[in-house]
Amino acid sequence: MVDKFESWASLIIGAELRLSLDEVEKLAARKSKRVRSQFGSALSEFGPAFFLLLVFGLLPLIDAVFVGIDYASAYYLNEMQLREAQKLPKSQATATNGIVISNCVNTWRGGLLGGTCDTDNLPVTTVEYYPVPWQPVGGNQQANFWFVSVSTQVSFRPFLKIPFLNGIPGLGAPVQFTVAGRRPVENNRFLNE
């Protein structure tokens, strides 16, 4: 065992070392018994490092998680409005005080996902109807299939406003999401009502 160590040490350092096994153990024990500095330099570096880690690491991470929650909330609102718009007559779906534009928003804000998110203004919703982009196959060549498209634009304030990150949406500035979706209209006779 000592011969293997001697050949290894001579290869690493490049010179002939003649250390006994006891001397190697003493050298390793001496290196492991280093005494801490009594001046507290390691402790004095902990405070600024913890502050930087908190401000530049944890707080932006919390804001980034809430940006994801805000997007999920905007997507859920759009899906809720789209589900209602596909079943209602066109006059009720496009009315500003109707179910799609007003009631769905109030229901969303009263729920868990909409209540968690911090919005500046009410969401802006656009409801549009248009025929399918393809022609039907068969003897009936009239386009009787229509889509309803709902576009929802929501602006959210950051959960924790970090003062020196003012220009970054979601961390120091409001973030705005526009979510759009489309579905086929369930009953085409509702287009004229």
Explain the overall architecture.
- By secondary structure, this protein is of the alpha+beta class.
- Helices cover 47% and strands 15% of the residues.
- The protein has six helices and three strands, in the order ααααααβββ.
- It has a three-stranded antiparallel sheet, covered by helices on one side.
- It is elongated, with a radius of gyration of 33 Å.
- The model has no long low-confidence stretch (mean pLDDT 79).
Essential attributes:
about 190 residues, alpha+beta, 3 strands, three-stranded antiparallel beta sheet
Task: Provide a concise account of the structure shown.
The chain contains six helices and three strands.
* Count of β-strands: 3
Task: Give the proportion of residues in helices.
Answer: 40-55%
Distance between the termini: 95 Å
| Biggest beta-sheet profile | 3 strands, antiparallel
Secondary-structure blueprint:
Layout: H1 2-13, H2 21-32, H3 41-85, H4 90-93, H5 99-110, H6 112-116, E1 124-131, E2 146-156, E3 175-184
Antiparallel strand pairs: 1-2, 2-3
